[in-house]
Amino acid sequence: MESHRCVGSGQCVMLTPDVFDQDDDGLVVLLQEAPPEDVHDDVRQAAMTCPTQVIQLDE
User: Fold this and answer.
1) Alpha carbons 6 and 10: distance in angstroms, whole number
2) pTM above 0.85?
């Protein structure tokens, strides 16, 4: 089974730009490994919106 990979859709960046960014290739970059509680709902939404489901949360 092939592992899921970021396809650079940018949904996570649009939802939580303080937590996620994209590199020069358009792939996700995690800016905050432990984001503040006030953005947890947005981070959950980013994980659910990710087309490849590559974002996983450890709550």
Assistant:
1) 9
2) no
Confidence of residue 37 (pLDDT cuts 50, 70, 90): very high
Residue 2 in domain: no
Q: Which pair of structure tokens corresponds to residue 11?
A: 């949904």
Q: Where residue 24 sits, what CATH number does that domain have?
A: 3.30.70.20
Ramachandran sector of residue 10 (left: φ over 0; alpha: ψ -120 to 50; beta: rest):
left
Which is it for strands 28-30 and 20-22: parallel, antiparallel or unpaired?
A: antiparallel
Q: pLDDT averaged over the chain?
A: 89
Q: Residue 15 belongs to what domain range?
A: 11-49
* The total number of structural domains that make up the chain: 1
Cα separations in angstroms, 13 against 2, 10, 16, 26: 24, 5, 5, 10
